[in-house]
Amino acid sequence: MDSDESRSAIAYRQIAGYIDNVADGARLPPEADFAEMFGLSRASIREALARLRAEGIVRSRKGSGTFAIRTGAPEMVRLSAISSLRELAQWHEVRLALESEVAALSADRRTEDDLARLQAAQEALLASLLTGRGEREDVAFHAALAVCAHNPKLSDALGRLTSHIFSWGNLSAQRSVLTMAERRELIALEHGAIVAAVAARDGDRARAEMRRHLLAGRMRVLSDLQT
Amino acid sequence: MDSDESRSAIAYRQIAGYIDNVADGARLPPEADFAEMFGLSRASIREALARLRAEGIVRSRKGSGTFAIRTGAPEMVRLSAISSLRELAQWHEVRLALESEVAALSADRRTEDDLARLQAAQEALLASLLTGRGEREDVAFHAALAVCAHNPKLSDALGRLTSHIFSWGNLSAQRSVLTMAERRELIALEHGAIVAAVAARDGDRARAEMRRHLLAGRMRVLSDLQT
DNA sequence: CCGGCAAAGCTGTCTGACAACATAATTGTA
DNA sequence: TACAATTATGTTGTCAGACAGCTTTGCCGG
């Protein structure tokens, strides 16, 4: 029965079936024609097309028409489980690329409020390191920095990637060769340099400091794992 | 400028921002309220909600309401359709981050074979620019460079992202203010500098040249779109 | 041939309305 | 009072018609 299926779902199925039989980049019939074809209103057709657009299957151009897109994978990259040190290193390089750019953009675009939040996150991290491992606060610091970049796509990708990498780290190396005091001092130094660069609106220095911080962190993790 | 942003895109951005400040599973205001809040019609709100539904960010129940879904998606980032110049610029910044890191890593890790393939790709691009637009060869050049980085995660993400951005450009009107000869000269210069840096195994210079190349390309695209 | 100009076509958006469904409020009854 | 049935209200889904803004087409004069 079609009665349990919403009309826009019917339209989606029908149009998707139509697209399967056309060439890449082909122009689809106008919305009004689809409506008449399927015995539905234009609103239902548009609802279905909105979903197809969001999925990247079609693209509409005002005044011109709607066109089929039969190329490209829907998602960027699947974050499958990290199963080797080599994969961890590869993801870490992706993170390095994104995070250093975030640092540079943040230095350029931060508002005063952004900076205040960043400094607050830094202090919260230092405070938590006196008692605990401060992992949650570390993530919060990097998230606060990502907000300063004012680029949701970039910060979203970076956030997911970071949590993915951290979820691996949590499961393995729990012991560190560093004492908590040493760790605290290092983070205070490296994060502080980043914050200072962001405060000074020096994008290049922020990028460099972030690179230094992440590379140093990678070295620490690797030396942990080898002990 | 918001004028290049469609009304449904505005609604999408606003509602997405609203969702960022609510708890998981929270009920959203009715469509009519959103419409009044943003000064838009219910149709535009529904268009935005259709996209959010397709992206799995909200879920609507007939007669009940629309609810936020804030459970993290398994994939890294969904490459949803680019619907405004703002989003294009955001994705472009993500690309810049990945591509410049790829250039640096490529300079460090390239083998002699890698370099030969890169130079071959560059010559093929220059040759194709004498006759056609050379878009396929441009992509091939960047793909060849990505191979040199020897990081499949990074090159895979970059490849998908690049094709996604290009698919937008292909469909939009793509007249250029540059003549083919000018374009050829620019690409020869910029790509040549990258190749030289990779050949010299100078990672920092490769990164800088790639940044220059992409930023110059963005300027060209923007000036095209504004004419 | 072709360059400008009018016409038609298409998507994007608005308005108003009603149906279908879910939930809250009210009322009737033991 | 406690509880079940019924009504009222709120919300999404769908329909219909209209117009604005943009793109493409096609015509006409040169």
TrEMBL record, chains A, B:
CDD domains listed in its UniProt record: WHTH_GntR
Xref: PROSITE patterns: HTH_GNTR (PS50949)
Stretches assigned to the HTH gntR-type domain: 4-71
Keyword hit for Protease: no
Keyword tRNA-binding recorded: no
Transmembrane segments: none
Taxonomic superkingdom: Bacteria
One GO MF term: DNA binding
Pfam family, one: FCD
Protein name: DNA-binding transcriptional regulator, FadR family
Keyword annotations: DNA-binding, Transcription, Transcription regulation
Organism (species): Bosea robiniae
